[in-house]
Design brief:
Elements (H helix, E strand, L loop, with lengths): L5 E6 L21 H11 L3 E7 L23 E3 L5 H15 L4 H40 L3 H10 L6 H22 L3 H10 L6 H23 L2 H13 L1
Parallel strand pairs: 1-2, 2-3
Helix pairs in contact: 4-5, 6-7, 7-8
Length: 242
């Protein structure tokens, strides 16, 4: 820190709200390494550049500990994925050059170190972190197993390895929901619509049996309403065909 001329504060999605094992924000701890380094840089009037990864926005001053709130008023740089990555890195390089010493060997050595650090963080931000986030989101979906949660997951992560399972679960939940509705509205039309919509449902055999039963009951009611021997004979024929 004594020889540091400029500090890059790389800010990603979880930078502000990352918590420790006690559930407290890490940045709120007095001995947090990131916080103490920023405090030292601000105290020594070292140039501090917030680097916002992806579409991350600058944290509000009120959301930061009092000792590093000045960070919110520093001019930030953005580092976004392609097609903006190279142009963003070029702009960051130009800003760093303004703060570095004229000694070219020290300049490029320092820039190389900072760029290497930035690339490592970007590799985490765009490769490792999305996979970790995907698994975290999938666990939340499994805890809140609803059609809405599953559809939101598949829309948000269409290439997820869990998509096949999620789609299957959506179909299963929709089928069970439809079956409950059919049981409440026990009509031939509702049952036939269910069997057509879910031909492979485990409830199909029961649904077909219930359709036959309802049709039989309907025919018997018609016989009772008319009450003629011809109808009785016709009904008998109908039953024999069944």
């Amino acid at each position: 820190m004594e020889d540091c001329q400029v500090m890059l504060v790389v800010i990603g999605d979880e930078w502000l709200n990352a918590v420790n094992n006690t559930g407290k924000r890490s940045i709120d701890k007095d001995d947090d390494f990131v916080r103490t380094e920023i405090e030292a840089a601000l105290y020594r009037n070292i140039s501090v550049i917030p680097v916002l990864v992806g579409d991350q926005s600058m944290p509000e001053a009120d959301s930061l500990p009092e000792t590093i709130r000045r960070l919110a008023f520093r001019s930030a740089a953005w580092v976004r994925p392609d097609p903006d990555f190279h142009s963003d890195m070029d702009r960051l390089h130009e800003r760093l050059s303004e703060f570095m010493r004229t000694d070219s060997r020290k300049l490029w050595k320092s820039i190389g170190i900072f760029l290497l650090f930035a690339l490592l963080l970007l590799s985490f931000a765009f490769i490792v972190y999305p996979k970790v986030k995907e698994e975290s989101d999938w666990k939340l979906v499994q805890q809140n197993l609803t059609v809405e949660a599953l559809e939101e997951f598949t829309n948000k992560l269409p290439n997820s390895k869990h998509k096949g399972v999620a789609v299957f679960m959506i179909d299963s939940l929709n089928m069970e929901s439809s079956w409950k509705f059919v049981q409440q509205d026990l009509t031939v039309e509702a049952l036939e619509e269910f069997t057509n919509k879910f031909p492979n449902s485990k409830h199909k055999d029961i649904a077909v049996f219930m359709i036959d039963s309802l049709n039989l009951d309907s025919a018997w009611i018609r016989v009772l309403d008319v009450g003629t021997s011809g109808c009785f004979e016709g009904f008998s024929c109908e039953i024999s065909k069944e």
